[in-house]
Amino acid sequence: MTTETTVIIDGFNLTAEQVIAVARAPHAKVELAASSRAALKESRDYIESTWMHDEAPMMYSFNTGVGLLKDTRIKVEHIELFQTQLIMAHSGGIGEPFSEEVSRATMLLRANAFASNYSAPRVEVVDRLLAFINAGIHPVMPQKGSVGASGDLAPLAYLAAAIAGFDEAEVMYDGKRMSAPEAIAKSEIGPVKFDLKAKDASALINGCTASLAVAVLATDDARNLLTDACLSLGLTLEAMRAEMAAFDPRIQQARPHPGQIKTAKVVRKLLKGSTRTTHEARAVQFPDELRRTDIPYTARIQDVYSLRCTPQVYGPVFDALDYIDTIVKNEINSATDNPLIFGKDGGGFEIISGGNFHGQYLAQAMDLLAMAITDLGSICERRVARLIDPTLSWGLPRNLMSGIRGVNTGYPVVQCSLSSLVMENRTLSMPGSVDSIPSKGNSEDHISNSTWCARKAATVVQNTQYIIGVEMLLAAQALTMTEDLLPGFQLGEGTQAAYEEIRKQIPACLDGDRWFHNDIQVAHSFVTSGSVREAVVSKIGEFV
């Protein structure tokens, strides 16, 4: 289905990995499968030969109006004007535009939905979408305005306007924002004005495809984020000389959730060979550690929840992502238009109106993603708070501060910034999928809110990328600052590789406060670039 440089779509076999590759690689190419091209032509020829007259049966949004105008016939002489006016009427989007990668993913997903041959636009519409992708023309689509009911009507109207070459439509092309006609002319992909025929416009704007594009990208980012959260956890366990009994496989088998078992296994692999997480290391008293010196040191027995309960907290995130992946996989290869066309035994086609455009599957999945990642970020932030407090970190230097005490402050404000992200994430975790409001004169009396659900889930993931990156940064700072106190004690194989990569990119802060903003940005890039993750994989192999 795929060559090294080209993705071939047929409506049934597109993967999330391919969507991500096309979305995030502006030079990736997409082609329509020959089988889909032939099927689209067959069904469209049937429609052209049997429906293009004023006595034809009523087909919603083909020869009828939309919404409460569903019973109003559109005469054949007005059908092309209807396509233009339909886009004009739905161009009610508000706010900042989606990113270029969301725009690319949206075009790909819409084209793939058409390739399944259930929507019956002309094959030329699919070719035009693919021409935009291949030329790097990205329609500017406002993020706000869709309720995820009859699809993402408002954002997709801007996509349709760009495809058709409307003077009002804008795109991003070659790094610049310009009118769609200007970009089409510069790219030389075909005629600037692209006429839309019967059902073309309604097919383009139907379906929660912008919601899906955001969901595909956010879910992939969340997967990588969870992997990195295992790394940041491992580094903090090392910094705090943690008790590893909680990760014993027998404990996980006694409560055999797949994600819980997986988390503990990942931690054991990352920390294999660690002697910092042993009783002998914990027996060493740090200068800032509050401990009675008149009695022998006894075993810690067990750690606090943010360390000890991580299999039980990370586990549900692993399991939630497995469920979300199933929803996203199905949506990528779903026909979400209305009505849909189906071949009949013996020849011919049947047109059926339904509700595949409704975004409730995506809305609930994205609410779950927001909640799962919010809690992941919350437990990681609690560990960061412990790293800077010697009364909670078993004696790590206060604030992980260096230089002259008092003159320098260390990292408490950095930790405070993470607290602000946790609070923002908690607000964004309020489920949007339960918040239905009637729209369009009550013709849509139950909506999904899928676009907002996807957008807020993506924001939660982006916020949490900072939290995870900063935990890596501060755990590495703690490890460097206590190296001389634990001579001869070593990190695990995976955590050592992570630590070394962090130190390659950010030198330890040992001479007093500096412009921490820069460190935070690099720490964020640990997650977004995958650099620390890749360094660990190159050392110990895949660990998640």
Unreliable spans are none
Query: What share of residues is helical?
Result: 40-55%
Q: Largest sheet, described in full?
A: 3 strands, antiparallel
Radius of gyration, in Å, reads 27 Å
Q: Taking strands numbered 1, 2, ... along the chain, how are they ordered across the largest sheet?
A: 4-6-7
> Which structural category do the helix and sheet elements fall into?
mainly alpha
The overall pLDDT average reads 94
Proportion of beta-strand residues: 5-15%
Shape: elongated
Distance between the termini: 27 Å
Number of helices: 20
Total E-strand runs = 9
Sequence-ordered SSE layout with sheet pairings:
Elements: E1 6-9, H1 16-24, E2 29-32, H2 34-51, H3 79-90, E3 94-97, H4 100-115, H5 123-135, E4 137-139, E5 142-144, H6 153-164, E6 170-173, E7 176-179, H7 180-187, H8 200-205, H9 209-239, H10 249-253, H11 258-270, H12 279-282, H13 305-308, H14 310-332, E8 340-343, E9 349-352, H15 360-387, H16 412-428, H17 450-481, H18 493-505, H19 516-529, H20 531-540
Parallel strand pairs: 1-2
Antiparallel strand pairs: 3-5, 4-6, 6-7, 8-9
Helix pairs in contact: 1-4, 1-9, 3-6, 4-5, 4-9, 9-11, 9-14, 9-15, 9-17, 9-18, 11-14, 14-15, 15-16, 15-17, 16-17, 17-19, 18-20
Give descriptors for this structure.
9 strands; 3-stranded antiparallel sheet; 20 helices; 544 residues
